[in-house]
Amino acid sequence: MASPAPGRARSAAPGWPEPPAPVLDPVEAVAATGSLTELDTAVTGCRACPRLVEWREEAARTKRRAYLDDDYWARPIPGFGPEDAALVIVGLAPAAHGANRTGRIFTGDPSGDLLYAALYELGLASRAEAVRRGDGLRLHGVRITDPVRCCPPENRPSPTERDTCRPWITREFRYLRPSARAVVALGGFAWQAVLPVLAESGWQVPRPRPVFGHGARAALPAADGGPGLHLFGCYHVSPRNTYTGRLTPAMLTDLLATAAAAAGLR
Hints:
It is built from 9 helices and 5 strands, in the order αααβααβαβαββαα. It has a 5-stranded mixed beta sheet with strand order 2-1-3-5-4. The longest helix is centred in the middle third of the chain and has 18 residues. The relative contact order is 0.14. It comes from Kitasatospora paranensis.
């Protein structure tokens, strides 16, 4: 079955909100928003990367055996969390049968199960379980986002797709500029992707650029007279890291606790 035409949004499944007008130019679309809420709505209509559009919608058609009865979201995934978040967690991209299915970032897969359990333990989430968009889960002072908003094949977005998607997260950080005090980059991809975003959003990135590692930390002074930012590196919460013991629940919780303290949340 062929994907919808490039300028046509996939219709909403039962229970999902209707998609907004299709977006083919993220630069133009983000400029038309006036708030983080408007940005979160607009991004769900993005169709700027044909390969990613085809892949996310193919995943929703073929499904995984465990989710054959599920209606997939199959659209770009907005950030999740309050508009005045002090701590921002940055991942890579949605999972084809996780967020692409459930409609919310890091929801419906083992990575999200670990992340939300850690946030709950620290008092930063209303509960440990994340089921799907609209399930009532709330974050306290924390926002989670991705530099790439559609699930990519093999979890590997191309450099072009990353750069095409960048206006969404850049505008997101500009809206978060008054409140953001700390950022946790989950993995080297997130670390490298977020550095130019932060440089465009009011903070000075040190030279030479800080190097990623678990527990890496960098101070980014304000470039606009506002407050500075603390950047932390954390191994990604993917099964590849967690099942091998490279990242344990205790390691994740400890790092998030340190970042939350830097953000003034603890």
